[in-house]
Each structure stands twice: as C-alpha cells, then as structure tokens.
C-alpha cells in the first residue's frame, strides 16, 4: 500500500499563519482519507503497488472503468496535498533560484506581478481547487487552476508548488477572507521543492 508522506514539521510550526488544529485536521483527516480510499480502490483492482503513485496517471486505463474517476480523484487528493505541504514551510525558507526567478521574470515581468496573478487566479476559483505553478516540457513556467482534485500531471506538465483553496485549508483561521489567507500564504511559501524540480 501507499504510505502517507511525513510532514517534515510539527502542526504548530506554521502558527500564526495556519493554526495547529487546521494542520492536524488537514493532514490526519483530509489527506489521510484520500489515501485510504485510494489504497482501497487499488486493492479492489488487485494492484500490486509496483510503481510510484505519480505513475498511476499514465496507467489509469489498466484499472476497471467504473473505478477510474474515483482513483483519479483520490490520487489527486493525496498528491496535491503532498505538494501543498511541501510548499508551505516554517523553516529554511528558500526564495526562487536564479534560474526559476529568471523564468518568472520572463513570464510575468517580476516576482510581484507573478504574486498578483497567482492571487487573482486563486480568488477567481469557484468552489474548491488549487493554483499551481508548473514547469512545461519546454522548461518554461505557467500558472494553472485545477478544480477539485485534478492535477497538472494529467496534462503532461510538472507541478512545482501550489496553494490549497479548499475551505478546510483556511476557514478556521480566515473564515471567508481569502485575501488574508493568500497574503499570509506568501509569508510561509517555500521554493525549496520548486527550485529542485525546476533545475531537473
């Protein structure tokens, strides 16, 4: 079976931007439920867990047609949360590397314009979803909105970082003040993983 990826920090470490209770619920309830449902679906399909979770996207047609949508939904629920938990960090905060910063400047003009576009897309989400910074096959970057638990991996691009715009990610702290959540997200955003993946 697939295992839940460790957070790498304590639930309280993101205070005051994200409270301990929200982080505990997010990791132990929301993401864990996606993982448990995914594993159950895969066992039903007699899957042998022989390759990394990300490869389920390109092998989805090997599963029963009636289960494919549920597999994709719960798979996204696990992987999208993995990336979000990588993106927010209380320590050793990294800024964009020189090459990623150059790509951001080429696409958006400046980091501030990138931040503005990122936040505008997040505020525009109707319902639940994510905004992703992605790397395309030509090594350029883009921002993508994914609704529910869809993933950019399904579209052949590599997610570098994201923000979770499901209510469970922010509501206990911010209620319906999404702008404050977005502003504080940029106080704890960490480009460590994004830099590593972009440099590949």
Category from helices, strands and their pairing: mainly alpha
Determine the CATH topology of the largest domain. minor pseudopilin epsh fold
CATH superfamily of the largest domain: Iron/manganese superoxide dismutase, C-terminal domain
First and last CA, distance: 28 Å
**How many individual helices?**
7
When the domains are counted, the total is: 2
Computed CA radius of gyration, to the nearest angstrom? 17 Å
> What average pLDDT do the residues reach?
97
Sequence of strands across the biggest β-sheet: 2-1-3
> Spans with pLDDT under 50 lasting ≥5 residues?
none
Number of strands: 3
Task: Give the helix level as a range of percent.
Answer: 40-55%
CATH class of the largest domain, named Alpha Beta
How would you characterize the largest beta sheet? 3 strands, antiparallel
- Topology pattern, helix = H, strand = E: HHHHEEEHHH
* Proportion of strand residues: 5-15%
Shape, please? globular
Q: What CATH architecture of the largest domain do you see?
A: 3-Layer(bab) Sandwich
Tell me about this structure.
- This protein is mostly helical.
- It folds into two domains: 19-87, Fe,Mn superoxide dismutase (SOD) domain (Helix Hairpins, Orthogonal Bundle), CATH 1.10.287; 98-199, Iron/manganese superoxide dismutase, C-terminal domain (minor pseudopilin epsh fold), CATH 3.55.40.
- It has seven helices and three strands; from the N terminus they run H-H-H-H-E-E-E-H-H-H.
- It has a three-stranded antiparallel β-sheet.
- Strand 1 and strand 2 form a beta hairpin.
- The chain starts with 19 loop residues before the first helix and ends with a helix.
- The model has no long low-confidence stretch (mean pLDDT 97).
